[in-house]
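Could someone model pyridoxal-5'-phosphate with this protein?
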Amino acid sequence: MNSKNLMLNTICTHLGEVKDNQYKGAVSPIYTATSYAYENVDVKRYPRYFNTPNQIGLAKKLAALEHAESALIFGSGMAAVSTSLLAFLKAGDHVVLQKVLYGGTYNFVVEELKRFGIDFSFTEGLSEKDFEEKIKPNTKVIFIETPSNPLLSITDLTMIAKLAKTNQLITMIDNTFASPVNQNPIDFGIDVVIHSATKYLGGHSDILAGAVCSSEENIEKIFSLGKNLGGSLSDYTVWLLERSIKTLGIRVKAQNRNAKKLAKYFSKNEAIDTVYYPGLKTHPDYELAKEQMRGFGGMISFELKSDIDSVEFVNSLEIIKPSMSLAGVESTIVSPAKTSHALLSQEERKKQGISENLLRLSVGIEDKRDLIADFEQAVSKVKAKSILI
Ligand SMILES: *Cc1c(COP(=O)(O)O)cnc(C)c1O
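Reply:
Sure, complex below.
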């Protein structure tokens, strides 16, 4: 099957299938062996070497989804992030990272890179000048994440790719929030695309996994370190992830549609102060999002009016569940100030634009009418309670 001729949903459903030649079953069999007959010097098959039949098949599917030459599947998003960064950085090197990053990536950088003698800088903002002013003679990598968490600001992929080319740097992106359905950074000149497959790729809140997609040459470099660090994914979960990705296209498109409608509804709702969604014309990065994204994604953040207690509101929801994670078929909600950004001071949170009443909604595939009804009953409940007090 030649991926170049296939469209999104066909790639999701079929590409990289492991053929069941014995029984002609319609789905990939799982090869669970950790021990294979020795083939030759080049092929030593072993799950930690990322080369079992299921690992190879799923990697092909992901590479096709991200318009990449090659891919590797990891045991978590952080295994993919840490292995990719370390593969391109050595003692004495420097990496520029964008200001707002996933908390785990931020922690890895500030807590671990020093011990390898690797220096780092975070940008002040997301403009070309913000990145340029942090580049040093020993900079080797630029790391970005767009849309960002939780305010869904957009980083300009073309600008980053150009800047990196001028300075001969490798560019890496965490593409988790967009998913390959909405954004293919390689088409804009970004080198390495990383996913927490725990989120949209898995999509059912029951898989921990990660992925990296890039050129053959870059993947070889990441593989070479990855086999030594040992972050590959068990074939049982590889199989489950392959099964999940069959519906990636239809899931994410349903989430895009729901989120766009909800964002519009929220922007006219009197219980809400501000809505952050890159698909709204009022979002400061709307034009940029339109240029580099096919869909605007399933993540929305919003601030409730100050007279509505956000904790009470979340506790009053009946369909939308409180959850730290995101991107499942079920809608979930979280307070960044009380979870992902709880360790920052209130002042620092304010500086980053994360108010106490900000909520981040991961929109699922439920019917929009039921999600709106859930929102409305929760607001009414909180308001009735505050009148009683
Ligand atoms: C969850 C997440 C990660 C980390 O992935 P794990 O699978 O939890 O290791 C990285 N980046 C983003 C944007 C995420 O949401």
